[in-house]
Amino acid sequence: MKIWPGRWIAEEQWPSPNVSTKKFGLSHNGILQEVKDSTVGERNEKTVLIPSSFACGSAGGCMIPGNEPADLAQNQACDDGLSRCWHGDVVDTIDILGSPSVQLEISSDKPVATLCARLVDVFPDGKATLISIGILNLTHRNGHSADEISALKAGEHYNIQLDLDVAGYTVHAGHQLRLALSQSYWPNSIWPPPSTPVLQLHFVSPPVFTLPLRKRGVDINNNDELFNDLGQPVVNPHALSVKEIRTPSLQRYTTHDTQTQSHKTTREMDKGEFQRLDNNTIFGASLIEVYDVVEGEPLSAKVFTETNTRVARKETGTGQTAELFDTFVNTKSVLSADESHFHSECEVKAWCENEMVFENQWKKAIPRFNM
């Protein structure tokens, strides 16, 4: 993985007087244009459709990534091509600090719909890097408690605000900002609704994107210099001494079957196997996740997960009398859904010295409740 240049910053209070917001209007032809407080964005009777391809999201990485490149968000160009996008040129370098947000007027022909907004840094060579993302199940537009959640009414217009994740990021002069809207972000975050809606963005109420920007240079009063040199990282003096038996590895890949129109993402994570040198205990684990969906068939979405875990002691150390053992646990689960319920099927098996000592299977149906 390449080192991404960055720096530590410090704020004495939050919200910070060093951060202000800049607003951009979204035009129907894909332009992000700065608007002043005394003006509004584009207002007219035009509409644009928000795309819904299940292939959108394949470059999103994992929701909770580790430190491996395969788990991180990749070049966003493919996902952007499956989204409705707006662009704005960055003339002077800017520092984003805080939560971007977008205010939109939306309508849907189905009771359940989801909206994903991504803020992307587009480099001069076309490479697109994810800055921040926000996702909203539109039945949660008024809040997330049970009495606030309500289905959408076909054809009715809703004014919603979608907040993106907090970000601290520098966009350099000569780059572009891209705001990308989509209905889908599979398999990272969005489970497809029971049926794919026609989701429209309206311009009767001007759509506005709000960006929190931190002052730069001599205009800012801060304590950033306190973090210029943090020294070397502290190493745990009590870390276990181990011998590697099997090397950890991670693979994550996506395939698109042009015959069946299925999109499948597979993540294979081998955590390796190691032996403690103090007591010869062996521990190892592996995980496989498979996310599968057929384009245009939201009820085909399915996730398969399998884990394997081994803990053993095959020999004792010099002068030790610890008990020898070899245990292994395998779990499998499948998650799918129909129009009204999620369906979970799980299995767990355990062995000791190659003899199965435990086995259980169970199924559960969970109401979708506007999902």
TrEMBL record:
Keywords, comma-separated and alphabetical: Hydrolase
UniProt keyword Nuclease, yes or no: no
InterPro entries per UniProt: Galactose-bd-like_sf (IPR008979), Xaa-Pro_dipept_C (IPR013736)
Protein name: Family hydrolase
GO MF annotation list: dipeptidyl-peptidase activity
One Pfam short name: PepX_C
Keyword Plastid found: no
Organism: Paramuricea clavata
TM stretches of this protein: none
